[in-house]
Amino acid sequence: MSRNAREAILAAARQMAQAHGYGGLNFRDLASAVGIKAASIYYHFENKADLGAAVAQRYWEDTAAELDELLEQSPDPRAALVRYPWIFRRSLENENRLCLGSFMSAEYDDLPDTVKTQVQAFADVNVAWLGKVLTEAGLGDAASREDRARAIFAAIAGAQLLARSRADIGLFDTLVESYRTTGLLP
Amino acid sequence: MSRNAREAILAAARQMAQAHGYGGLNFRDLASAVGIKAASIYYHFENKADLGAAVAQRYWEDTAAELDELLEQSPDPRAALVRYPWIFRRSLENENRLCLGSFMSAEYDDLPDTVKTQVQAFADVNVAWLGKVLTEAGLGDAASREDRARAIFAAIAGAQLLARSRADIGLFDTLVESYRTTGLLP
DNA sequence: AGTTACCTACCAATTGTTAGATAGTCCTTG
DNA sequence: CAAGGACTATCTAACAATTGGTAGGTAACT
Fold this sequence. Notes:
The structure is a homodimer of 186-residue chains. Chain A is an all-alpha fold and 186 residues long. Helices cover 75% and strands 0% of the residues of chain A.
């Protein structure tokens, strides 16, 4: 049952971290969400930094998988780009949660180095995917494509942040629509 | 000396909150930064929620003043819009700090209501200013102007967040430049 | 004498972490 | 096949540090 418990801890920790951040993640609440005791978490993770790094790593791995899936379902790169914001919309749908990468970017100063690395990997995954799909869509010149990928990622993250502060998913949709109108998004 | 102490607390608390968030703001470190004892803070603020609300309120008031000043120095609305991101750049220059509104938006779930209100006021101040200047610049149609103002605000906040996670001000500049290239910013 | 602005000393709750016990499972060995 | 030992996964109990907050004192100024 160890494998299951570890997975359950990772899943619950992700939910908690997306709502309260790395700083707001605590072992007692996490354990009770999983149905075990706080000390038992140490059987699966060395310490909080180790848990945080594992959660952040799993987060970008899951996101990478979702992005690949999205591209399979929408092979047309333009259509895939249109659906990209949906990844972030889902967090808001999930009880107004924030992208873990965004929350941890805010907490940057207080993050263990191992966690910082995984947070950056999350951004890299998004930018790489966007860059690839922009290329396939023939959008923008090759020189500025990665810059544009980063711009899209940052803008969507910002939209999610603003929408969260109002607990208003409609605001997220409006912002994304504005990005389309102004030309940032196709 | 009370007025000075209160101001010193507000200033130091703002710096701490922009680096560690509301949750990471603690009375002992704050007091030591000001040069007093933790208990003395309670002479000036009822409790942490009260302090947090005061800090957030002062933050948007200061920002509103800075924006007005910016418009005085650059009466041409287009020029003022070009300089707008500078407000956010300054936080990064200040030891890679984040906009307080962004940090607290991330912490939304754990914020006292009085603090939430001030965080939303900060966004309102920015959007109102952007909307006004966009109008003066004759950019966009009247119907979508507020949407565009919100989009600019969210995108700049997102750029600052991403740049912070890399401790890279140059990245912020590149992102802003991309927003210009793609047409979000003039 | 009263008010201002600060202090020391403490409390209770929270939190990351550790030590050591325990019940069940699995593998080896007589 | 039964017995014993090792391993797995969890527990109870506690510790030390941190934190928001309170009680009550004190020196200076009005």
